[in-house]
Amino acid sequence: MSEKEDGVYVIEDVKEEGQTALPINKKRNRLLLHKIDRVVLPIVSFLYLLAFLDRSNIGNASSAGMTEDLGLTGNQLNVGVSIFYVIYVLVETPATVLVKMIGTSKMLAIVITGFSLVVIFSGFMTNYAGLIVTGLLLGMFEGCLFPTITIYLSTIYLQDELNTRLAYFFGASALSGAFGGLLAWAILQMDGIGGKKGWQWLYILEGIISLTGGVMAYFGLPDEIEDAWFLNDEDKDLVRQRHEMSRVFHGNQNFSWREVRRAFKTKNFGYLEVHSFALMLFFTDFPPFYPQLSPHWVIQAFRYNT
C-alpha cells in the first residue's frame, strides 16, 4: 500500500514477511526524471528520427530516377520495399534477447552503425539484386531498433511514466516527415556532382549523417540507469528505490501464457488491433510512396479541377 506523508510517498511491502518502507520524495523524483529526460529522450528520439529518414529514402530516390537507373520493371520496386518490412518483423523478437545479452549502448551502436553503412552502400547500387540485398540488410538492422529502445525505456521509467515518454519518442517519426522531404530535395540538387546521380548522393549523405547516431548511443546512453554518467550518488540511490517501488506495486512480472490468453480475451483487443493496423498502414506502408504521388494524381483522386 502507499500513503503520502509530508510530501513523501511511503510504499510498504506487506506481501512478504515483515514490512519495508520506501520513502520517495516527490520533488526529488521530479528532479531525477528531469535529469534523465534531458539526456535519454533526445538521444533515442534522434536515433528513431534517423531510422525513419533512412527508410524513406527509397521513395525519394525512385522519384529522382533510381527506378530507371537500376532497370527496375513491373513490381520490382514494390518487392524491394516489402522485403524490408518482412525482415523487419522477423528480427524484432530475437532483438529483445540480444539487447539483454550485450547491453543497450552496444546494441544501439551496432544497429545504428549497421543501417548507416547499408544506406551509404545503397548509393552504389547498380541493379535489382542490389536493391534486394540492401533492403534485407536494412530491415535486419532497423528491425532491432524499436524493440531495443522500448525495452530500454521500460527499464528506466515506471509504468505510469512510460506512456508520455513513448509519445515523445514516437513524435520523432512525425518530425522526420516534417523536414525529411525538404532535406531530400536539397540533396537531390547535387545531381551530377562527382559523376553521381542525385539519388546516390541522397543515400550517401544521409547514411553519413546517421553514423553520428551510433557514436551518440555508445557514449551517451548507459546500459543501466543506475550507472548513468549524468547522475550523482544520491540520484542513483533514488533510482534503486524506484525499481523496488515498481516491484512492490506490480509484483511478479514473469512471462505467463495465462496472461497472454487473458489479453486476447479482453473486449478491447479487437479495437486495438484495428487501430494499430490503421495507424501502421499510414505510419510505415505509405510513406515510401508519397514522393511518387504526383500533384495531378492527387487532384484527380479528389476530383478537383485545375
TrEMBL record:
Domain called Major facilitator superfamily (MFS) profile: residue spans: 40-306
Keyword Membrane: yes
Residues making up the signal peptide according to the UniProt record: none
Coiled coil: none
Major location category of this protein: membrane
Spans traversing the lipid bilayer: 36-53, 73-91, 103-125, 131-154, 166-188, 200-221
Entry's localization field: Membrane
Keywords, sorted A to Z: Membrane, Transmembrane, Transmembrane helix, Transport
Entry membrane topology: Multi-pass membrane protein
SUPFAM superfamilies: MFS general substrate transporter
A Gene Ontology term for the protein's cellular component: membrane
One Pfam family per UniProt: MFS_1
PROSITE patterns for this protein: MFS
Keyword Repeat included in the entry's annotation: no
GO MF annotations, alphabetized: transmembrane transporter activity
UniProt superkingdom: Eukaryota
The protein, known as: Major facilitator superfamily (MFS) profile domain-containing protein
Organism this protein belongs to: Trichomonascus ciferrii
